[in-house]
Design goal:
Layout lengths: L8 H8 L3 H8 L7 H14 L5 H8 L4 E6 L4 H14 L5 E5 L11 H9 L6 E5 L12 E4 L10 E4 L1 H14 L5 E5 L5 H16 L9 E3 L4 H12 L7 E4 L2 H13 L9 E3 L16 E3 L2 H17 L7 E4 L2 E3 L8
Helix pairs in contact: 1-2, 1-3, 5-11, 7-8, 9-10
């Protein structure tokens, strides 16, 4: 009779007719078990679906071979990044554990300290922190930060060229003849938001156009926080002919606000975003945006972290990936 519920090492031993110690040797690849016995035990393990717990594995060998992907919340950026980490981890011998404590972006500063203290030492051997608010946590395990709020510090980091991407977005609108270009920025405490605003200002300056503060708003990177600022820009007496929203979620909400006001995109206002999350290609019309290679950021973070865990990392531990324009149909010449 096979066991019900969670299969234990004792269930495997009883079914295979061997001792728990023998099963342990087979599971951990130790010597001292006859080949025929090892084959029989492995067949039972496969049939019953036995897996040792991560905690037990950690206590036994001080390693779990698990990498933690720690996020404040699962939203389009982090879920896209997870696809990259998942693709990269295959064949490395490591498993992934994606973890969120359910906190909300912007109201949960310091979440990474709590998450690391819960998981490091018993469940994970290393961690990737996705858009962490702080990078001064010292959990005793290797850590890589992806797009940290404060920008690169001493912690190994993977990010993208935010300022160059913002320059490309603004230059695209300028090339279409737009001169009155609105800017819907991210949160002021985020380095990526600061760099995207700097890129917007730089492109205007290069074109000999003075920055008009009345055309600039803080969108906060979230649809709900971008709603009112987008409404303000689109209801100005002399509204902008184009808007650069510093992330796709804000750009998509700006399109929704434009439609609610009876405006057409791009006939009445051109809109460009930043990120190139999958949702950006599904808007009507499809959103012109700046691509940052989010999946590649995930895969680069995995390989950097594994190198740190294995002691094989050489050279720089700050990786910046290029950004590029993705031209669709939400912008048109003025």
């Amino acid at each position: 009779m096979e066991p019900q519920g969670r299969v234990t090492i004792s269930d495997v031993a009883r079914t295979a007719g061997v001792s728990v110690a023998t099963v342990s040797k087979v599971v951990n690849g130790r010597y001292g078990v006859a080949v025929s016995t090892s084959v029989r035990v492995q067949e039972v393990i496969d049939r019953l679906g036995y897996e040792s717990s991560l905690v037990a594995r950690s206590l036994r060998s001080h390693r779990t071979n698990v990498i933690g992907i720690l996020v404040a919340e699962f939203e389009p950026f982090s879920t896209e990044l997870l696809k990259g980490t998942s693709a990269a981890v295959g064949g490395t011998g490591y498993e992934l554990l994606a973890y969120s404590g359910g906190g909300r972006h912007g109201s949960n500063v310091g979440w990474e300290r709590r998450y690391l203290s819960r998981l490091s030492g018993t469940l994970i051997d290393g961690a990737i922190l996705v858009t962490p608010t702080v990078v001064d946590a010292h959990p005793g395990i290797p850590v890589v930060a992806v797009d940290p709020h404060t920008g690169p510090t001493g912690l190994p980091t993977v990010d993208s060229d935010n300022m160059r991407g913002a320059v490309l977005a603004t230059e695209h609108l300028l090339a279409l003849g737009h001169r009155r270009i609105g800017f819907l920025g991210g949160r002021s405490d985020l380095e990526s938001a600061r760099l995207r605003e700097e890129g917007y200002r730089k492109a205007l300056a290069n074109a000999g156009i003075a920055v008009d503060p009345s055309l600039m708003r803080v969108g906060g990177y979230r649809p709900e926080t971008a709603d009112q600022p987008a409404h303000e820009l689109l209801t100005m007496r002399e509204r902008p002919t184009a808007i650069f929203a510093a992330n796709d979620l804000s750009a998509i909400r700006t399109m929704d606000v434009a439609y609610s006001l009876g405006l057409s995109v791009p006939q009445d206002v051109s809109i460009i975003g930043f990120d190139n999350v999958p949702e950006s290609a599904l808007t009507r019309p499809p959103l012109t945006t700046i691509n940052q290679p989010i999946r590649q950021m995930g895969s680069e973070a995995i390989m950097l972290l594994i190198g740190l865990m294995n002691g094989t990392t050489q050279g720089s531990t700050h990786i910046t990936l290029p950004t590029e324009l993705v031209e669709r149909r939400s912008c048109r010449p003025i």
